[in-house]
Amino acid sequence: MSNSVELPIAKAINAGLREAMRKDPKVLLFGEDIAELGGVFRVTEGLHAEFGPGRVQNSPIAESGIIGTSIGLAMRGYRPVAEIQFDGFIFPAFNQIVTQLAKLQNRSEGYLQMPVVIRVPVGGGIGAVEHHSESPEAYFAHTAGLRVVSPSNPNDAYWMIQQAIESTDPVLFFEPKRRYWQKGPVNLDGASSSLHQARVIRQGTDVTLVAYGQMVTVALQAAEFAQEEGRSIEVIDMRSISPIDFATIIESVKKTGRLVVAHEDSTFVSVSSEIAARVSELAFYHLEAPVIRVGGFDVPYPPAKLEELFLPDADRILDAVDRVLAF
Amino acid sequence: MVQFLSPEGDVRVPAQWAEYGEHLKSLTEADYLKFYREMARCRRFDNEATALQRQGQLGLWIPAIGQEAAQIGSGFAVGPNDHIFPSYREHGVAITHDIDLMSILKMLRGVNHGGWNPDETRFHLYAIVLGTQVLHATGYAMGVKFDGKVGTGNLDEDLAVISYFGDGATAEGDVSESFLFAAINHAPIVFFCQNNQWAISSRVTNQTKVPLYQRGAGFGVPGIRIDGNDVLASYAVTKKHMNDAREGAGPFMIEALTYRIGAHTTSDDPTKYRDDEEVAYWKARDPLDRLEKFLRKNGINQDFFDQVAHDGEVLSEEIRKATFALGNPPIETMFQHVYSQQHPLIDEQMAWLKNYEESFGGEA
Which of A69, A81, A246 would best serve as a mutation to test chain B binding (most B beta carbons within 10 A)? Predict the structure, then answer.
């Protein structure tokens, strides 16, 4: 990498937002506490000072209002980027996102486009109180008209936020909050993938392991442990939850014959349900074992002292690896 | 309550509303005739659409009967750059902005979900989920403010936004949040609430404890109540507050007190929840009748009313023919414009469905 810097994910998103705002004066930032404070996770730190209160605005604590007015601003030609402070706070805006944002382009037969990005810190593992650790991505992936992505590393965070802002469709941008301060290289020269491409981030031959967002770190850790036991795991970072890059997953499954899918979200009617169903349709004769899913339990996100039991860790993934290899 | 045109057809401008009355001074006889003609056209359209629904040509119809003055008056008060965000009963406002009435019938027949160009017409799409459009209107008005198109004095460029909603929608959080966002941003928007007193079977007293025009006050949005069956009040008050908003006065709320003479929709049966006396009371305050009385008192002769009736016949005939001629939309309609760019799942499913349909030898 000729022009690379080392940044944590939060700073990489910050840098990506800055780039997008420099390129396009129509990009406006909205959200609770995002101005002088820089957001509760400091992702927008410094942007209010650099671009001024006209372009980085503290919103009232009214999530439906944040998204509903963002829709109106998009109709006026702006490209609003709205931060929802925590995953569990997105639901007051659910109606505007699902019945309006997702559908206006279709309703208007293409006269309207909705270039709105909704940034959401997502997932658990930070010892928080209720509603601060959730994984609501499947609700949005289920809704036609939305694009849903989640970066797992600083380079993707930097580029994917810019690609999401450039998109002429609404994008739910789920940020792995537990990994905000995980550092990694960011190549400033150019994006290596388009927004919706999955990526094989570790080559392997025995089992395909698919993950996204903050579970990718755990998946890589599991693959490392498996290596020590002589098992070769291929890890795919989905990056995009809607649409899903099935071609990359299928190609890997055809090679390994075994698939484990991991995420923090509860597994019932989840992203992994969809992957298991589609892979069984598209690669049935290549599978040596059933697809095994590793996720959160189908209970409300537990109190913090129990969350490490709720969240899949490397051992739970390796248990699934054992199970698919037992066939 | 601001009223200029009484149910008896007399015009009087009380001193306390003189400021609004100013906006009546520029109206010519041609304007009064236009108001009547378009209100009559709206009602004719409404009656024809109801008939088409009864004949099975439309899946549903949403009558606006009784609300023509509120809609036509305010619709004509909107400026040439202003944007309108309707709910789903604003056929009269659509008429003032030359929306092809067949677009509305196509939607209620189930051919599409709207499909007119909101940028070109400045009349945005109907919104079925109550109150959602009020936030869009507010966001749009915030954008107008950010663009600096407010209060510059350049009337060719400045604009304001008007958002329509009903008494029922005021109970939705989105409407309250709209007041808040509009107020703190000092956005150029007029909230036009048609209080038709019924949200399907629920009285307005079930939606609010305070008069609706006061609803915005706690958020910093002042308001006024007008007689919504008086086209002159609707025109003049909307005109003033759209002008004010365009000039930078910030948001304002108008409550147009009117009455839903018809059913909520053709699926509704209002005899189950309201009595005939109430309906009769409001029919005696019909917005069209009082304007007709006024026009006749002012020397408009029968020829004009005959012409309006004739135009109504022609409109009905056109609409019937055009509705019968509407085919089913092509398969692609379902898959198009879900996303602006290619989407693998949608492409795959559209190809599958086309192939599946073709497997029946074109008979499906």
Answer: A69
